[in-house]
Design brief:
The C terminus is likely disordered. The chain has 222 residues and is α/β, with parallel strands linked by helices. Bound molecules: adenosine-5'-triphosphate. The site of adenosine-5'-triphosphate has 16 residues, from α1, β4 and α8.
Length: 222
């Protein structure tokens, strides 16, 4: 099986995430895409994050009826920071015959050398780098200068239509009393209203989670 791994905070999942996943599924001929919500993203330790259970419930609503999209709670169950290399290693150990594809934004390639064990990540998975509509600052011709030949040879580029939506924008919209209609699936919009999520701006978080209580040294990268 060709298995796409798409990590993120997904607080909440939105149309940008869904289009990215679908374009990667199609262009890389993936059998499944697994959305992997992070427990403690190393680059977001100072941010309040909605509890993992609720982010998973929202993800389930978003992918309902799409059998090729699945949700993995592997990072939520693991203690400590959510490092991509650990997640890929665990998935590979559990599914040794599957071919793994790590879905990331092409702009993240700039930070990739700061992630924990980038060489091992590239061994474990093909890196699917997604350009969002406009030419990326990293592409097939420039990636080897940035990342070296070995990692660069493991990158596959995908292009998706640019969708200028971020979860931060959506949380701010809710706090300002604005609609999320068509920016998230309808069921996700309803869940956010019913559970009164994101009522306050990020500077005054309504919910923090066990993820934020993780202690340890902060690290850049994933
Ligand atoms: P936040 O605003 O809270 O930082 P986000 O919207 O950027 O969240 P994340 O969950 O942090 O979402 O992102 C997970 C992955 O989705 C990242 O690789 C990110 O590059 C990608 N992503 C986020 N927004 C979009 C978008 N509009 N189009 C395509 N990819 C996106």
């Amino acid at each position: 099986m060709r298995l796409g791994i798409f990590g993120g905070t997904f607080d909440p999942i939105h149309v940008g995430h869904l289009v990215l996943a679908e374009q990667c599924r199609e262009q890389c001929r993936l059998d499944e895409v697994w959305f992997v919500p992070a427990a403690a993203p190393p680059h977001k330790l100072d941010s309040a994050i909605t509890p993992g259970k609720q982010r998973v419930e929202i993800l389930e609503l978003a992918v309902a009826g799409m059998p090729q999209f699945k949700i993995s709670d592997i990072e939520l169950k693991r203690t400590g920071l959510s490092f991509t290399v650990d997640t890929l290693g665990a998935v590979k150990a559990a599914h040794p015959h599957d071919e793994l594809f790590l879905l990331i934004g092409a702009d993240s390639l700039h930070d990739f050398p700061t992630w924990r064990d980038p060489d091992r990540i590239a061994e474990l998975a093909t890196i699917v780098a997604v350009n969002r509509g406009e030419p990326s600052s990293v592409d097939a011709s420039t990636s080897s200068a940035l990342l070296g030949e070995t990692i660069s040879s493991r990158i596959q580029f995908v292009t998706m239509p640019g969708i200028a939506v971020s979860a931060t924008d959506l949380r701010d919209r809710v706090a300002a009393g604005c609609s999320l209609r068509f920016l998230v699936p309808r069921a996700v919009e309803e869940y956010i209203v019913q559970h009164r999520l994101y009522q306050q701006a990020d500077s005054e978080p309504v919910s923090s989670s066990f993820e934020n209580s993780v202690s340890g040294s902060q690290s850049s990268g994933s």
